[in-house]
Design brief:
The protein is mainly α. It has 9 helices and no strands. The chain has a single domain, classed as Orthogonal Bundle (TorD-like).
Length: about 210
């Protein structure tokens, strides 16, 4: 039940909303590195560590990943992105969920499942953009859902919660786990390694909040 008009929500509800919004910021930060690798996100990671509280289940582990990202050495991220994710060699760490389901890209079942979640949330994937099973797209989608949940009331809450839970448990968590296993032997620069770790930790924390 929501608080009456003009009455502040109980403190625990306000804290939970703040935690959901923080997870959304981390998912956006980490996901953006896999969508726009030329941008340097180290300063943003430092800001989050300085200005936010990570006092929630999974928060300390997220802070560890963000600290590694903030302290990462400067690197030519565009070149590193091509080396790790775009060469198409056998060692490529594909940032697409379909690959980890079937060994091929653009798996229809995976794309249809994600498309149904987007539709249920009333969101249309960007035309001409990456497919919905791209790691950065899934992270951004979950961030949107968490922001919605941080302010949702009444009938909207269980619907958003169900969509977020399916995205986390049925897609993002197993996807990012398999992705990190494939990425590790390629010796990625600390920026991409820390971003993947932060994304995984944020998704795991979200699982316990949705």
């Amino acid at each position: 039940m929501s608080a009456p008009a003009g009455v502040a929500p109980p403190p625990e509800a306000a804290v939970r909303g703040a935690d959901l919004r923080l997870l959304a910021e981390i998912l956006d930060l980490a996901g953006a590195l896999f969508l726009q690798p030329v941008a340097d996100r180290r300063s943003r990671a430092s800001e989050l560590l300085r200005d936010r509280s990570f006092d929630f289940p999974g928060g300390p582990q997220i802070a560890v990943s963000l600290r590694a990202l903030a302290r990462a050495e400067a690197a030519d991220l565009d070149v590193e992105y091509v080396r790790l994710f775009l060469h198409g060699r056998a060692a490529t760490a594909h940032p697409y969920e379909s690959f980890y389901r079937t060994g091929a890209l653009m798996d229809p079942e995976c794309l249809e499942g994600l498309g149904a979640l987007f539709a249920a949330a009333g969101i249309a994937p960007e035309k001409g953009g990456p497919p919905p099973d791209h790691l950065g797209v899934e992270a951004s989608f979950l961030a949107l859902l968490l922001r919605g949940l941080s302010t949702a009331e009444g009938e909207a809450t269980p619907a958003l919660r169900a969509i977020a839970a399916e995205l986390v448990n049925g897609h993002l968590l197993p996807f990012v786990s398999a992705f990190r296993e494939r990425l590790a032997p390629l010796a990625p620069c600390r920026t991409f390694d820390a971003a993947a770790a932060a994304l995984a930790s944020a998704a795991a924390a979200a699982r316990n909040m949705v």
